[in-house]
Amino acid sequence: MAKFGELIGSEIPVLIDFYAEWEEDKSDSLHDILRDVAAALGDKAKVIKIDIDKNETLANALRIKGNPTFIIYKSGEMKWRQSGDQDANTLIGLVRQYL
Questions:
Q1: Which residues does 61 contact at the CB level (< 8 Å), separation at least 6?
Q2: CA 50 to CA 45: how far, in whole Å?
Q3: Domain made up of 2-96: CATH architecture
Q4: What is the spatial distance between Cα 44 and Cα 38, in angstroms, rounded to a whole number?
Q5: What pLDDT sits at residue 53?
Q6: pTM here?
Q7: DSSP assignment, residue 4?
Q8: Judging by DSSP bridges, how do beta strands 77-83 and 14-19 pair with one another?
């Protein structure tokens, strides 16, 4: 959890995708979406994927119930959270609000 604190404490926005590895059919298209988001934002933001099965304590602490769940943090503060599919343009627009 200490590493998570360092990760979200960044001065630049951090978009985190909490996902489950067993949802492979969704994860391929989601991977493409996140790649597009990361490419569009460049070094102005971080885009990170966290497997909820491998990080169960963190997922429980954040009450992650749906997959995928997206959260944007900046300077250690949660700015936005949404469960369910999102398109690249929506995610890019949301992150840009916190640049």
A1: 1
A2: 16
A3: 3-Layer(aba) Sandwich (3.40)
A4: 9
A5: 92
A6: 0.91
A7: H
A8: unpaired
Q: How far is CA 62 from the centre of its chain?
A: 13
Every domain of the chain and the residues it spans: 2-96
Amino acid, single-letter form, for residue 14: V
Residue 18 C-alpha from the chain's centroid = 6
Question: 38-53, pLDDT tens digit by residue?
Answer: 999 999 999 999 999 9
pLDDT one-digit tens code per residue, 53-82: 999 999 999 999 888 999 999 999 999 999
Determine the 3-state secondary structure of 18 from DSSP: strand
Q: What is the pLDDT of residues 11-31, one digit of tens each?
A: 999 999 998 887 655 556 888
Residue with tokens 């990760």: 7
String of DSSP letters for 27-83: HHHHHHHHHHHHHHHGGGSEEEEEETTTTHHHHHHTT--SSSEEEEEETTEEEEEEE
Amino acid identity at 31: H
Tokens 């700015």 label which residue?
A: 79
